[in-house]
């Protein structure tokens, strides 16, 4: 018996050379994933003239912060846009999680009489939608959300695809016996969900939260449609406006000597890279908060000794 356990333990252990190979492979793969963003950061810190002469290099001969100075010339506008985006992302993710979690839990329970109807109701919106014009009319005229912060939050609050993902997670990872035990102890549907189902659903909820966070952070289209107030412009939309102004100057630089002078003093490629860093940098630091739950989600249903 002891010999069998020892053989089983040795079977699951890797030898030192193979362990080194797998760790080396994982390290190279991780570096290839991180390298593009690091290279973008390097380009954003490269002098524009050096970039034009030498091209893209890992270690440029001359560094410069002119690209970031150009972007930050907007002053308080950039900080205000960051504040709007952070508020929309945090509040929108919380509201989206509440809607999706409750809806998905209801249609995942076999005891819910109308589960098929509401499942089809959500699935149907994945196949057909009302179109841009009816959506705009509903948001601006029926709901009256034009030029309000809620026009950036509510249109993205419910996603049918996320509902289907979380419904499947509830069906496969939350046993009916746990819910029955809650009912036996006298807990209602809401109490059962909060006390028993919610702790088991953290991996699935973390996945949906990350998807919603990325959706809200990268959204610019709703601001283009519904926002005219400059104090409510989110980060992505503001960076697009900076890029549009840059393109306008480049296209009209040959019409005047003033345009040529502005073109010579303006960082072009490096400013674009700086915008990428400013837009994607903060959201990268949010991933470690979800990583632990992703690992738990990968091990759900695994055989444990």
From TrEMBL:
Bilayer-crossing regions: 20-45, 82-105, 117-137, 149-170, 190-217, 273-290
Gene3D superfamilies with a match to the protein in the record: MetI-like
CDD domains the record matches: TM_PBP2
Topological type in the membrane: Multi-pass membrane protein
GO CC terms in record: plasma membrane
KW Oxidoreductase (keyword) present: no
Record-linked InterPro entries: MetI-like, MetI-like_sf
Subcellular location per the Swiss-Prot or TrEMBL entry: Cell membrane
Domain ABC transmembrane type-1: 82-295
Gene Ontology BP terms: transmembrane transport
Entry keywords, A to Z: Cell membrane, Membrane, Transmembrane, Transmembrane helix, Transport
Family the entry assigns: Belongs to the binding-protein-dependent transport system permease family.
Protein name, as recorded: Carbohydrate ABC transporter permease
Organism: Paenibacillus arenilitoris
